[in-house]
Design brief:
By secondary structure, this protein is mainly α. Helices cover 61% and strands 4% of the residues. It has three domains: 18-131, Fumarase C, Chain B, domain 1; 136-231 and 245-386 and 482-492, Fumarase/aspartase (Central domain) (Fumarase C, Chain A, domain 2, Up-down Bundle); 389-480, Fumarase/aspartase (C-terminal domain) (Ribonucleotide Reductase Protein R1, domain 1, Orthogonal Bundle). Strands 1-2 form a two-stranded antiparallel ribbon. β1 (177-182) and β2 form a beta hairpin. It binds arginine (ARG).
């Protein structure tokens, strides 16, 4: 028997672990990312057990200092890497830091074990006292909550930035129009600003979904022990306060095995991803020569190695594709939780990489979408022309007749006949409703008069939608002002004190 255990749990074992199994079950190769969270949670626990008399004030101070040193390791690694490789791109440097940290501790089973081993190097045997009254089951539950909370906060920041970009673009588009589509067939004209504000509405809902998830998850599992609660009478509010949680979790069995907060995050991310994919799909279409509504910003497009003329919408295509992996992660997490008996089961370790991937995917998306949106330029002449062909004023025409007292169903029928007339009157060119001579229209209904043509002008067709949420010019101006106020409120209500885990 060796005197120094290499495991956190080797006491009852006589046989060594199968080497392959040992490597296969380790989570350190990916959970090293939880180093800042593990250090913060360990500091909070140290304060709790010091208050219970397990650590003297001096021991607490030494432990906290040691933990700070261990926490700074990631920064040291990154400095060492940037010193050797010069410029560091944040994506690759993250991977390099991880690889270096993992390689530095081949015996560490997981991030909890790693911190304990490193702390022992810093402060000696005192480090082994830190595990008094706690279990890795509550630690991982806490670390993941802290990680998800940070990920939510940066998602919310990114969302607000994108909201601002959409609102600015909507303002810039003024009263320019575009065709609105249903079934991807031209339906009615809308203001470009109205179309953009549809995405503002979606993102505001996303913002509130992430905020809700944050509120629900912001409880502290520390003190829940392995399953039944800490084995010491700890004051759980100490750690909860230190980590800026609102309160300790109310049930130890739930707290050590609950991963709903991860699912909430992944599901909110999925819904956001779906919205992103709708936006990306529309822009991909609108950038085609067939639509020709937008000019893709070159800074956010790519070329083809084969076809010299190409400017490809890779940004919107990738953005559309990212929704697939977000949904994949949410599905994996839901499947992981399904049928899992209380309380902790090692299956839960599988959820971590899903969450890391969701967080990274959102970070990536929200790092490009706001500036891409700011760089977008429309071709208003093409969009206006498209909004004026294809009988997009047919509903306004039917409304004209119904305002004259014709029952709407009948008015619909008459305008349908007028459309048919326009399609067939001149074999060389289809006629829009405003191009059909009045006498021809009057054959369909004597209620058509000279004022009909004004009532189906582009502006009149927009402005007849004079309801809250409609595309009438002044309604959109009001909606834009209201959206600006709401987003400004979201920005001003961000509390800076939430960022405890740096
Ligand atoms: N690496 C583990 C995880 O992520 C930490 C908890 C281990 N707990 C245990 N009882 N083996 O789930």
């Amino acid at each position: 028997m060796s005197n120094e255990p290499t495991k956190m749990w080797s006491g009852r074992f006589r046989e060594p672990l199968n080497r392959t199994f040992e490597q296969w079950q380790r989570s350190f190769p990916f959970d090293w990312r939880l180093l800042p969270q593990e250090v913060a949670a360990s500091k909070a626990h140290a304060q709790t057990i010091a208050a219970a008399g397990i650590l003297t004030p001096e021991e607490l101070e030494t432990t906290l200092r040691g933990l700070t040193l261990v926490g700074e390791r990631a920064i040291n690694w990154s400095n060492r890497i940037s010193a050797t490789s010069g410029q560091v791109d944040y994506e690759t440097s993250d991977q390099q830091i991880g690889a270096a940290i993992v390689a530095s501790a081949p015996q560490a089973e997981d991030i909890h074990h790693f911190v304990e081993l490193e702390l022992t190097k810093e402060i000696g045997a005192l480090a082994l006292k830190l595990h008094t009254g706690r279990s890795r089951n509550e630690q991982i539950a806490t670390d993941m909550r802290l990680f998800v909370r940070d990920a939510i906060d940066s998602t919310l920041t990114g969302l607000r930035d994108w909201l601002l970009a959409l609102i600015t673009l909507a303002e810039k588009s003024g009263t320019a129009v575009m065709p609105g589509y249903t079934h991807l067939q031209r339906a009615e004209p809308v203001l470009i600003a109205h179309w953009l504000l549809a995405y503002v509405s979606m993102l505001e809902r996303d913002h509130s979904r992430f905020t809700d998830a944050r509120t629900r998850m912001n409880l502290c599992p520390l003190g829940s022990g392995a399953i039944a609660g800490a084995t010491l009478a700890l004051d759980r509010t100490i750690a909860s306060k230190a980590l800026a949680f609102t309160a300790p979790t109310p049930n130890s069995m739930d707290a050590t095995s609950d991963r709903d907060f991860m699912l909430d995050f992944a599901q909110a991310a999925t819904t956001l991803g779906l919205h992103i994919s709708r936006f990306a799909e529309e822009l991909t279409l609108y950038a085609t020569s067939e639509f020709g509504f937008i000019d893709l910003p070159e800074a956010f497009s790519t070329g083809s190695s084969a076809m010299p003329q190409k400017k490809n919408p890779d940004l919107t295509e990738l953005a559309r594709g990212k929704s697939a992996r977000l949904l994949g992660s949410a599905t994996a997490l839901a499947t992981l939780i399904k049928g899992l008996p209380l309380a902790y089961n090692k299956d839960l370790q599988e959820g971590q990489e899903q969450i890391f991937d969701v967080a990274d995917t959102l970070t990536g998306l929200l790092s490009v979408l706001p500036n891409f949106t700011r760089a977008l330029t429309f071709k208003p002449e093409v969009m206006t022309a498209a909004a004026q062909t294809g009988y997009l004023n047919a509903m306004a025409a039917a409304t004209y007749l119904s305002n004259k007292g014709v029952p709407f169903r009948k008015a619909h029928e008459i305008v349908g006949n007028a459309v048919r007339l326009g399609l067939e009157m001149d074999p060389a060119k289809r006629l829009e409703l405003n191009e059909i001579p009045l006498p021809e229209l009057q054959q369909l209904s004597e209620d058509f008069a000279e004022d009909f043509f004004d009532s189906i002008s582009l502006r009149a067709t927009l402005d007849c939608h004079d309801v809250i949420g409609g595309t009438a010019t002044h309604r959109v101006a009001e909606a834009l002002t209201a959206a600006k106020t709401r987003v400004a409120h979201l920005i001003s209500s961000v509390s800076s004190e939430d960022h405890v885990v740096a």
